[in-house]
Amino acid sequence: MKKQLHFDRAEFAARVTAVKQAMASRGIDILILSEPANQNYLTGYNAYSFYTPQTVIVALNHDEPIWIGRFMDRISAVMTTYLSDESIRAYPDRYVQSNLSPYDFMADVAKEMGGERATIGVEMGGYYYSARAHADLIRALPLARFVDADVLVNWIRIVKSPAEIAIMRQAGRIADAMMQRAIDIIKPGVRECDIAAAVYYQMMAGTPDCGGSYACSPPYLCIGERAIAPHAAWTDEALPASTSINLELFGNRHRYQVNLSRSIVVGNPSPKYQLLSEVVVEALNASLESVRPGRTCSELEEVFRKALARHGFEKEARLGYSIGVGFPPAVGERTASLRKGDETVLQPGMTFHMMPGLWLDTVGITITQSFAVTENGHEPLTSTPRKLFVK
Amino acid sequence: MKKQLHFDRAEFAARVTAVKQAMASRGIDILILSEPANQNYLTGYNAYSFYTPQTVIVALNHDEPIWIGRFMDRISAVMTTYLSDESIRAYPDRYVQSNLSPYDFMADVAKEMGGERATIGVEMGGYYYSARAHADLIRALPLARFVDADVLVNWIRIVKSPAEIAIMRQAGRIADAMMQRAIDIIKPGVRECDIAAAVYYQMMAGTPDCGGSYACSPPYLCIGERAIAPHAAWTDEALPASTSINLELFGNRHRYQVNLSRSIVVGNPSPKYQLLSEVVVEALNASLESVRPGRTCSELEEVFRKALARHGFEKEARLGYSIGVGFPPAVGERTASLRKGDETVLQPGMTFHMMPGLWLDTVGITITQSFAVTENGHEPLTSTPRKLFVK
Fold first, then answer.
1. For the residues of B174-211, what is the DSSP string, one character each?
2. CA separation for the pair B360, B390 (Å, rounded)
3. How do the residues of chain A divide into helix, strand and coil, expressed in percent and rounded to 5?
4. Do the Cβ atoms of A76 and B234 come within 8 Å?
5. Domains recognised in chain A with CATH numbers
6. CB contact under 8 A, B76 and A218
7. Which of A238, A234, A226 is nearest to B208 (CA)?
8. Which residues of A are less than 8 Å from B193 in CB distance?
């Protein structure tokens, strides 16, 4: 079975060490991770199998993390992680949709690692840690003390290594190719679903040297009056002779995602809409140029806000968020946001999606930029021009 | 704002009535639904917004369900549901990723509906009902009695109306088009990611009269030695001159999903592999021909198992499961399974994915059939021939 590992062993070891340090400082003996992105980060595990109970356990007294999942997915753990065989544990299929709880199986592994009376961290707000999962674990480990360790690993993930940045550059090139394809085919008469089709095609086809993967959410095609419905589904309808489109696309490479939004006008943009786009780009550029290690997220937002204010505009609450490795349903790391009051200090290797939205009544402009913080500034992760596209 | 409703008001009313009857019989006053598919079923709501807290509340003493979600998604509720304005409640963005809990907001709505001392049903095992969501709700409603109402709505969804079946036929035609496109392009030298690209393209482009939507999971491309890793990601590698592929695809129309798997051989199948495929098809056909209202899921499995046994083969545990409306991460209704011991009685309007898998060491055959139970038999929901494809 051919191994698919995208980072070397030393990098995984450094990640695990950093997590153990955070655990120790918070008095956590055993960490039970339900978030697929955190599982991937610490072990490399990559398969769409997290819809049945699946965890990675990190114990202070144990060298390797332990992956626990469904029997049929065991082979994916062999294929995509560096873990030794004894660190890959699979529960039999009789635990799936039955009276047995896979969390009993997981609790037994935790006990084996000294978890019976330990302090156990769990991800209370995670997508794949249901109310029942927590109830089952508590019942199976009645003497343990449970604490909320939500986003503990996420805060370590926030600084990307050079190897991670290299993969995010590839994801960025895929996002560029997706946007180019969308701009190429958008014209009056094209069905909305066919724009989605073209975008999805390119998401997977990627570039000649670099294929893509499914993103953490569908692309968002906010067309015409649906501009104000950011997460709505597309329809079968054909584009009219004149409309505006806000397109939010996601390139994904080895689960690392880079976001890219552009506004596209079919027909002639009104002078007011054109002006709006120029103001957004000016403020976006000003904020990007202000990126430096040592500055805070809040400061980036302030630069943007003041640049807008010079033209008499106000902006929405959040200017952006940290991005990186992710699985459905969402890429957001739930760590730093580019917003007023977020005092996270920028460090080289942090990556963000800066996504200003500016609205006039029911039409809006979204021209965004994903970037990495570098030693002395920023590196854009996509190269699509920052401008309003007109077709 | 143009309404996008795919069922008439009477059908939604009947669904709500059926849910209220089930609630009453279990002593539940108020049902707080976190599963997006159940929200869609009762209100029509369709947007990819469930990654932030979102619920639909059904109260015995209240005519309409109440949708509660994030402010920016309110407009999607206006657009895709029949709910009156006062039944659409949105929490402000200051509840998103902050110290405030959206569940406090939801608890206030529940109180308004008499929920303070009520018996409240929640979906303990749902994907979007986290341990923290439950803890927050219990804290906000300390005098209420919470009971597990997981899959209560799912068991009502299991019987589809004629209008739902009509949409699933469209989803089936999309699945057929996806499989045809995959078979067309599969040949030595094609990158795996380009097969994924073609399949995704067709998932959205659908048919000329009927566009598609994103499925509940990515398609599964189990190629060569990855045949035994059912949920693994595809790679950038080119197909070799000779290999076997198990392809699991999902057509989706208005959130209704129809599944379709086929095995495809590149090069010449071994006589043993060809024989295996013929045995699977024979047993699949025998089980399909035995479908009748009044029979049980267990009986369908038995017919299949005996047909295999005539050729000296044994099968895996589960022969299939109920399908219907769904959102990521999984389409499974978590209700009836076609397996030994499942005594669910077949009724017209039930829909299943019958998915036998038969394995010889590390190669396997997956030739499957999604179908609806009719008054006197079954109706296939896809028309791709049930056979091994050779390229």
1. HHHHHHHHHHHH--TT-BHHHHHHHHHHHHHH-BTTB-
2. 18
3. 35, 25, 40
4. no
5. 9-157 (3.40.350.10), 162-390 (3.90.230.10)
6. no
7. A238
8. 204-206, 211-213
Question: A–B: how many Cβ contacts below 8 A?
Answer: 194
Q: What is the mean pLDDT of chain A?
A: 95
Alpha-carbon distance A224 to A229, whole Å?
10
Look at B75 and A46 and tell me if their CB atoms are within 8 Å: no
Cα–Cα distance, A183 to A106 (Å, whole number): 49
B189 touches chain A (CB under 8 A): no
Task: Tell me whether B205 touches chain A (CB under 8 Å).
Answer: yes
What pLDDT shows up at residue A318?
A: 85
Q: Is omega for the bond preceding B142 within 30 degrees of 0, making it cis?
A: no
Contacts of B200 (CB under 8 A, 6+ apart): A197, A200, A201, A203, A204, B219
Residue in A closest to B226 by C-alpha = A1
Report the distance separating Cα A254 and Cα A321, nearest Å: 20
The interface predicted TM-score of the complex, written ipTM, equals 0.96
The tokens describing A351, both together, are 């990556």
The C-alpha angle with vertex B169 and arms to B168 and B173, in degrees rounded to 5, equals 115
CA dist., res. A333 & res. A320, Å (int): 11
Q: Where are the alpha helices (DSSP H) in chain B?
A: 9-25, 36-43, 74-80, 102-112, 131-140, 152-157, 162-185, 192-205, 271-289, 297-309
* Residue A260 contacts B, CB cutoff 8 Å: no
Helix (H) or strand (E) run with residue A203 in it: helix A192-205
Segment holding A288, helix H or strand E? helix A271-289
Q: At what angle do helices A131-140 and A102-112 cross, to 10 degrees?
A: 50
Contact B341, B236 (CB under 8 A): no
Considering only the beta carbons, identify the residue of A48, A75, A126 that sits closest to B218.
A48
Please name the member of B47, B132, B212 whose beta carbon is closest to the beta carbon of A124: B132
Q: Show the beta-strand stretches assigned E in chain A.
A: 30-33, 55-59, 66-70, 88-91, 119-122, 145-148, 220-223, 243-253, 256-266, 320-322, 351-354, 357-360, 363-366, 369-373, 378-380, 389-390
Q: Is the pLDDT of residue B367 over 90?
A: yes
Least confident of A45-49, A200-204, B314-318, B345-349: B314-318
Are A8 and A14 in contact by the 8 Å Cβ rule? The answer is no
Q: What's the rounded Cα separation, in Å, for the pair B117 and B141?
A: 8
pLDDT in tens, A227-274: 888 899 999 999 999 999 999 999 999 999 999 999 999 999 999 899
Helices and strands (H and E) in chain B: how many: 10, 16
B71 touches chain A (CB under 8 A): no
Per-residue pLDDT reduced to its tens digit, A353-377 = 999 877 777 778 999 999 999 999 9
Q: Does B84 touch chain A (CB under 8 A)?
A: no
* Residue A267 burial (10 A CB sphere; 0-12, 13-18, 19+): middle
Residues 6+ apart with CB under 8 A from A361: none
Of B97, B196, B214, the CB nearest to A218: B214
CB contact under 8 A, A132 and B122: no
A238 touching B (Cβ < 8 Å) = no
